[in-house]
């Protein structure tokens, strides 16, 4: 009886069957040893496809897309080919490890989960589809200088989530793709030539014909106008202190800085020409009218008050 108890206690510890546990661990170890070559091969296959994906992406961008003028389309095609190639390698690696059946079950369950996630991430998916749309939009390319949603800068990247702008102050702005698609944007780079506007005003005593001729002559000498282009001059209004006008002319523009440079040159040249011909560019003048009678009355009142004060002071200093 004692011997049976010792034998039964030798195979169990705290109620656990050690023999079954050891057998289970041995089975796992044998399975790992048997699957280890497949695992190593699967890892090597995935690494190989990952490296291959880089070359496929480069091939698509430089060879297949060499006749495509849109740089963003090339970038998007390269990223897509990279993702597809890497995904194929991932599936092959799972097949080598005999996990293809498991993957089928996981994908079936992921379909339901993906539907729920899709409903929850409508904004993100909207940005993704907008990113694909922007990649094929010829009016927006990498390196273009644009204004959108209150920001202006050079397009540094167009991805599946956002458009990245580099502003003139060297800071980056990330704008969601849906904002770009749903809002207007101004592109300075898509057109080689742009019209620049200068607003100014001259004094009422000036000869308006002379002002017009001098301005047109100055700008024509400074900025060459191509076929179908001309410097234009228009008086706009009788202002408070001046007669205001606007002049506009054509220059080569690739970004906002080119517009500012042209405006700077035009303002300096116009001011110099006006000074040489004694043409006045007045600044706002304000005349304060106090009223003649009112001013005289207040002066007399102040004088009387000062006289009364002096008399009272003298009476206090000489008492009887």
Largest sheet: 5 strands, antiparallel
Mean pLDDT: 79
Helix content: 55-70%
Encode the helix/strand succession as letters.
HEEHHHHEEEEHEEHEEHH
Structure characterization notes:
- There is one protein chain.
- The chain is of the alpha+beta class.
- The protein contains 9 helices and 10 strands.
- It has helices at residues 2-10, 18-64, 71-96, 100-120, 122-135, 177-182, 208-222, 256-276, 292-317; strands at 12-13, 16-17, 145-148, 151-158, 162-166, 172-176, 185-187, 193-202, 232-238, 243-252.
Q: How would you summarize the topology of this molecule?
A:
Elements lengths: L1 H9 L1 E2 L2 E2 H47 L6 H26 L3 H21 L1 H14 L9 E4 L2 E8 L3 E5 L5 E5 H6 L2 E3 L5 E10 L5 H15 L9 E7 L4 E10 L3 H21 L15 H26 L3
Antiparallel strand pairs: 1-2, 3-4, 3-7, 4-5, 5-6, 8-10, 9-10
Brief sketch in words of this structure:
This protein has 320 residues and is of the alpha+beta class. It contains nine helices and ten strands. The strands form three sheets. Strands 6-5-4-3-7 form a five-stranded antiparallel beta sheet. It has a three-stranded antiparallel beta sheet with strand order 8-10-9, covered by helices on one side. It has a two-stranded antiparallel sheet with strand order 1-2.
């Amino acid at each position: 009886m004692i011997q049976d108890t010792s034998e039964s206690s030798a195979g169990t510890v705290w109620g656990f069957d050690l023999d079954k546990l050891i057998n289970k661990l041995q089975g796992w170890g044998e399975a790992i040893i048997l699957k280890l070559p497949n695992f190593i091969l699967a890892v090597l296959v995935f690494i190989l496809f990952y490296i291959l994906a880089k070359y496929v992406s480069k091939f698509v961008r430089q060879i297949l897309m060499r006749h495509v003028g849109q740089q963003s389309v090339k970038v998007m095609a390269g990223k897509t080919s990279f993702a597809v190639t890497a995904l194929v390698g991932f599936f092959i690696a799972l097949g080598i490890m005999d996990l293809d059946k498991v993957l089928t079950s996981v994908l079936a369950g992921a379909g339901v989960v993906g539907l729920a996630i899709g409903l929850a991430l409508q904004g993100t998916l909207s940005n993704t589809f907008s990113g694909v749309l922007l990649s094929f939009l010829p009016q927006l390319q990498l390196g273009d200088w644009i204004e959108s949603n209150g920001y202006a800068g050079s397009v540094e990247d167009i991805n599946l989530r956002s458009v990245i702008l580099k502003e003139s102050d060297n800071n980056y702005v990330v704008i969601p793709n849906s904002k770009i698609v749903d809002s207007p944007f101004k592109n300075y780079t898509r057109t080689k030539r742009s019209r620049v506007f200068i607003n100014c005003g001259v004094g009422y005593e000036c000869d308006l014909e002379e002002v017009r001729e001098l301005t047109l002559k100055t700008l024509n000498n400074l900025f060459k106008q191509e076929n179908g282009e001309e410097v234009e001059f228009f008086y706009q209004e009788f202002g408070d202190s001046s007669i205001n006008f606007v002049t506009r002319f054509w220059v080569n523009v690739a970004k906002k800085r080119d517009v500012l440079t042209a405006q700077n040159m035009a303002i300096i040249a116009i001011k110099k020409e006006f000074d040489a011909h004694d043409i006045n560019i007045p600044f706002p003048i304000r005349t304060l009218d106090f009223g003649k009678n009112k001013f005289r009355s207040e002066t007399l009142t102040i004088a009387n008050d000062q006289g009364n004060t002096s008399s009272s002071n003298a009476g206090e200093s000489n008492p009887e």
